[in-house]
Amino acid sequence: MDTWMRFMSNDGSVVFGRVEGGYLHEYKSLDQPVPTGAVLSTRALTPLAPCAPGKVVALWNNYHALAAKLDKPVPAHPLFLLKPAESVIGSGHAIQRPLSYAGKIVYEGELGIVIGRRCRDASAEEAADSIFGYTLVNDVTAADLLNENPHFPQWCRAKGFDTFCCIGPSIVSGFDWRAARLVTTLDDVERQNYPLADMVFSPAEQVRLISQDLTLEPGDVIACGTSVGVGSIKDGATVTITVDGIGTLSNTLAVACEVAI
After folding, report:
1. For the segment 150-167, what is each residue's pLDDT rounded down to a tens digit?
2. Where do the structural domains in the chain lie, given as residue ranges?
3. To pair with 131 at 20 to 30 A between CA atoms, which of 98, 107, 225, 256?
4. How many of the other CB atoms lie within 10 Å of CB of 121?
């Protein structure tokens, strides 16, 4: 397995590469994984989200356990929404409550698939080959907005605010998701602990089927959906999502500031 990260250097430039023993071995980019020859100490770099997706495809109802709890049928095709690029932040960055929203904010710990090559109408083999690696995602939601308008469920608005898609800390290629579990804690109290093998659609199946609907580009992320244990985050609380072999994604919901009128 290889671990890949993305950083900002002291001069403001963004670097990407394979991390080993506290050093970044720089590569041109995720879609051009060619080494530049530069080796940088990670101690002198500021971590960013490990990729800069043009879009995040976020699945709903993709775990058998949650489908059973919600009494929902298992879908025949992935059910998904899109989160904008501006919603993405990395591990350690704060989730910001929208100034216009005082309601419940919810976490969802998820496995993320990172696309490594352009993918459209992919075969099963092409779909598997297009996966660069895996990361972690906190699919944050302004829950009270979902059904605020009884005539139109607002999935994209509720999940698309700036900072509402936490991704990181790294991308791991060659990761065996089948044997792994995802654990989510809220202020160090375990809230989710579920096997990734309970997915309805495997990662390769997700890529294949979603590529029938839209083009997946290098750096795009598919958030594989979540299982039981989703809950709300209070201002100042910290959510950590861990999968052994990938690492820990940690983000705090910033304390809301009073706005002077």
Report:
1. 999 999 999 999 999 999
2. 1-47, 49-252
3. 107
4. 11
Strands (E), the chain: 2-8, 14-20, 23-27, 35-41, 46-47, 55-60, 79-84, 88-89, 105-107, 109-115, 131-139, 141-142, 165-173, 181-186, 189-195, 221-223, 231-232, 238-243, 247-252
Q: Is the Cβ–Cβ distance between 206 and 113 less than 8 Å?
A: yes
Torsion region of 81: left, alpha or beta (phi above 0 gives left; psi -120 to 50 gives alpha): beta
Q: Return the number of other C-beta atoms located less than 10 Å from residue 27's C-beta.
A: 17
Query: What tokens appear for 212 in the block?
Result: 């029938």
Vertex 252, ends 250 and 257: CA angle to 5°? 165
Task: Note the CATH architecture for domain 49-252.
Answer: Alpha-Beta Complex (3.90)
Which phi and psi (to 5°) does residue 83 adopt?
A: -110, 135
Q: What percent of the chain has pLDDT over 70?
A: 98
Which residues are bridge partners to 98 per DSSP?
none
The yes-or-no verdict on residue 64 having pLDDT over 90 is: yes
CB 206 within 8 A of CB 240: no
Please state, for a pLDDT cut of 90, what percent of the chain lies above it: 94
| Alpha-carbon gap, residue 240 to 250, rounded angstroms | 4
The answer to whether the CB of 191 falls within 8 A of the CB of 227 is no
How confident is the model over 90-119, as a mean pLDDT?
96
Q: Residue 232 and residue 111: Cα distance in Å, rounded? A: 19
Of 213, 217, 171, 165, the closest CA to residue 54 belongs to 217
